[in-house]
Amino acid sequence: MGYRKLGKNNKHRRSMLATMTKQLIMNEKITTTETRAKEVRKFVDKMITYGKKADLVSRRKALAFLHNDKQVVDKIFNELAPRYKNRNGGYTQILKLDERRGDGALVVILKLMDSKQEEENSDKKPAKKAKTKEEKSETK
Questions:
Q1: Is 57 inside a domain boundary?
Q2: CA–CA distance, 7 with 13 (Å, rounded to integer)
């Protein structure tokens, strides 16, 4: 099974996923159910990968999926692609909230990863230095 049907027919599902992808790209954070978030994440990753390629074919593919929304595509190619240039996939993060009161569906926040936070975290971790022969002999 390659994808979730989400209780929708093909046209409705594709439209909903494109709209949710646009909203996530523009707002950088959306609240939705867990199953929808897992599906939208695939398309957001694909759009950012198109932005990193930065060629005409990729721009046209992104425009075709995102209902010719030039504002969203410009943000992908001009802001998000440079932000994630050193990252190979995994541009989104899912944070679990609680169950929805009406139907008990698990509600999550789907957001784009911050490259600024990653740089700060990598700076905080000290690099492990290799032990010299003298230090190894002292520990024995």
A1: yes
A2: 8
pTM of the model: 0.77
Tokens of 7: 């209780």
CATH of the domain at 109: 3.90.1030.10
Q: For residue 4, tell me if it sits in a domain.
A: no
Integer Cα distance of 53 and 130 in angstroms: 38
112 CB-side CA count, 13 A: 24
- Rounded to whole angstroms, how far apart are CA atoms 62 and 79? 15
Q: Report whether 64 contacts 42 (CB < 8 A).
A: no
Range of the domain at 92: 10-113
Task: Work out how many domains the chain is built from and give that number.
Answer: 1
User: Counting beta carbons within 10 angstroms of the beta carbon of residue 105, is it exposed (0 to 12), middle (13 to 18) or buried (19 or more)?
Assistant: middle
Q: How confident is the model at residue 121 (pLDDT cuts 50, 70, 90)?
A: low
Per-residue model confidence (pLDDT) at position 137: 61
DSSP state of 7: T
